[in-house]
Amino acid sequence: MSARLVEIYLPETEITRLESILTRNSRRYWREAVPGGEEKYSCIVQQRYAERLLNELELAFREIPTFTAYVSQLEAVLPPIEQTAETELPQPDMVRPPNAIERFFSRDRISTDELYDDIEESLHITPSYLLTVILSSIIAALGMRSGQAAVVIGAMIIAPLLGPTMGIALAATVGNAKLGGKATLTLLVGSLFAILAGIVVGHLVTIDPLVSELKNRTIVQPVDIALALACGAAGVLSFSRGASLTLIGVMIAVALVPPLAATGIFLGIGQPAVAANALFLFAINLVCINVAGIVMFLIQGLPPKSWRMTGGILGLWVFILSLLISMMAGRLVFGLGSLEVVRHYLTGDP
Predict the structure, then answer these.
(1) What local confidence, expressed as pLDDT, does residue 36 receive?
(2) pLDDT tens figures, 126-157
(3) Domain ranges across the chain
């Protein structure tokens, strides 16, 4: 059921403006009086119009101190509200009509405010967050050390880096510098603790660096770029539809946590050159996820505050990705990322 119940509280003097907005953006609404000279309006809004309604409410009433709006998801509505071309509401004059791609992908997208709420809680550097990062990295490190892919996947379900990663992509799309700075700091701190946890594992546990699960994190191939782009696009698509955070975490963490844990392991066993290879894989994955994430947010019709700013940020990410791809190509051409070179670093054999 793709509908929202929006409850709005305003002074009685504003009901004419409010009813005009509700008529344009909702299918059904009703009014009731509340104490204190306030009026409460409840309306049923199709999910694809929730963004539009909330934007109009904020523009119209944000200067009113008592203005409040609550949004909740509806499980069922009778009679049902269909999302078809026949039931589409007309676009306001000042709003650009969505193109066919935006209309198709934005049908199930939750509003920007709901995206903010889903992300906000995971952007705080708390003891719980740090402990989750450490445990996830340790589980991934031990899984790679023993060559058990299932254990590595199990570590991904914890998904500690999901919020910061999605936060960076969302902030770049809508041009929210405060959100972007907060997400970047949280991701950097989490990444540092993931590497430190890997170092501890490398010091305390006997490591065979030639185990495939570890060795694969030291060699960057074109397929790794495709994997990271797919992870970013699938993660954003699922996240913007309100899908399970665990599912999205597996998509994103597959590309981020294992390289960080591998970086720590190789540092712990005294192989900084190989650790740099694993960190290089992490950098490529992170950039790919953000490029794919921004593009997917835009395809779904997420409204940027400034297309110039969003386009500039996306262009910067693409430029960085191009540099990293060039470095990867050079390493492959000159054999710096080959299995033989990695084996030489790991074993010391000529």
Answers:
(1) 78
(2) 998 899 899 888 988 888 888 777 677 666 66
(3) 3-97, 112-347
CB atoms within 10 A of CB 178: 8
> DSSP string of 182-237?
HHHHHHHHHHHHHHHHHHHHHHHS---TTSHHHHGGG---HHHHHHHHHHHHHHHH
Decide if 325 contacts 225 (C-beta within 8 A): yes
As a whole number of angstroms, the distance between CA 59 and CA 41 comes to 17
Region 229-257: mean pLDDT is 69
Say whether 10 sits in a helix, a strand or coil. Answer: strand
Spatial CA neighbour of 168 closest among 20, 323, 7, 288: 288
- Which one of 3.40.190.10, 3.50.50.60, 3.30.70.120, 3.60.160.10 gives the CATH number of domain 3-97? 3.30.70.120
Q: Are 21 and 57 in contact (CB under 8 A)?
A: yes
Q: Mean pLDDT across the chain, nearest whole number? A: 81
> Of 39, 92, 248, which Cα lies nearest the Cα of 164?
248
